[in-house]
Here is the input.
Amino acid sequence: MRLVSPVGGDAKATIPAWWHEARFGMFIHWGLYALPAGTWKGEQIPSLGEWIMRNARIPVPEYEQLARRFNPVKFNADQWVSLAKRAGMKYLVITAKHHDGFAMYDSPCDPFNIVKATPFGRDPMTELAEACGKHGIRLCFYYSQTQDWRHPGGAGHWRFGEKWSKAFPPPEAFQDYLEKKAKPQVRELLTQYGSIGLIWFDTPLCITREQSLDLKRLVKSIQPDCIVCGRIGNQVGDYGTMGDNMIPAGRVAGYWETPATLNDTWGYKSYDHNWKSADRLLGLLVDLAGKGVNYLLNVGPTGEGEFPPESVERLEAIGEWMSVNGEAIYGTQPSPCPCELPWGRITWKGKRAYLHVTKWPEGPLRIHGIRSSISAARFLADPGARVTYRQQHDLERDWHTLELTLPPQAPGAHVAVLALDLEAPLDMDDTPIQQSDGSVTLLAHLAQVNPPDAVAFERNGTTEAWHTTEPELSWHFKVANGGRFTVEIVHWEAPGKEAEGHHEVSLRIGDTSLEGPLLRHRDLDSFRARRVSPEAVGILGEITLPAAGSYEAVLRATRIRPDTAGIMLSEVRLRSVATPD
Ligand code: FHN
Here is the structure.
């Protein structure tokens, strides 16, 4: 799929196998901001904990004072790393320097660091490097290469009262910051702590392509195997980074990772209790694995150096699941299906496919499109449980159906994984086909666009920069049962724009056309977070597909609201009005 993004990866990059094998890593946002923990001078400061310096407009000299009180004596590298290991995570990315400019390691080039400026005086990175070596976890560093609110040349430097857009430093000042701070510190990180798995740069903002390339060259010149994430900017990273907590619609090509939170902050906030349940976190893990995306899950330790107990509890639960089901995640390939499946997700490797059942079926579980012959099926969590299966191929319609009869209850508390032994690597129909709930999903980013490139796509597969009525998006799809279908348009709405009217679209299938506004009838029940708003499901009307067979759907915009971001389409969904199957 064409996911063009400045934080995407270099399509030609090859990446060390460990990163793809890993699929699951731990992110740690830890810094001085953990002390105020979201509260400044008695006031709870909205938004992310690690942004308190900017959001509470704390002048540099005042913020610097936090260092004098930073004494995280409860920090225990072995405990952190062994928990990551128990959770099934294979790499650990920790903030070596976040936007506040404070180095969480012993930095010879800037004394504003945890060893020289705090009573703690220890270098957590040395201790983490040792613990990671002991537990076989790859140590990786986060480094804020563009934003530095303390350095005069860093983006976002504390010139409070000015607008964000004006906060970019003049190019010479930014270059000076790169030469005097960012590059020397990246060098330090790559020379002081042994082998580093990857550097997680962030918020590229004003960095130029030449500067991103220069930084990448620096990394590779010191540690050629060190991977560089897409947020180095300008599409020169080794892999692409999704937006924060962003889940793409359907599988993605190339190497991608989603950084994600356990609650609503990265850096510790004492009063953020909006914790996702272990079940939801596991749902996200299998969702991402089924789409070919690594999951980098964040913990925000306290100012004393401890993981919040709510984080520990969730990571332990994930670990329990991973100890049984990990083979369905590590080193797997994404599902060949061109849509999200109504009953769960698929991953596979070699001659084995894994069905991650997130919605336990009331009757038999029917899956369409699997061409491979199956020789055995068993639950990873309960290999003795009775599972029977039947494969059918309707030659006339070229329609493959797998029917599984499962026990009445899922084994285990969370996602149940069925391992299917195959006679050859997984072969599945990769055209959009009708699912067992009767629905057909046409993902925006899998459409044929005419004229080509007339519409761009966000990393999550949503259309962007769709500003004219010229482009046509079309899909070929197959149904096993004709009938009446409700046409749903899943899209993102610009909040507060309702008064200006709505974009309008038309959809043609065969001789029938439907036309209407993109309204919000309900929110989509999914986690494909894009910015802050949920996806809206609008109903365009009903359409009849007279019989089983192949069809083409063609979507056009008939009116686009001016002065908006244009149409942000995720998918077109045909929902069977009659009973499925
Ligand atoms: O501004 C940062 C934020 O504080 C946090 O580090 C996240 C993690 O992905 N990255 C930036 C926002 O996208």
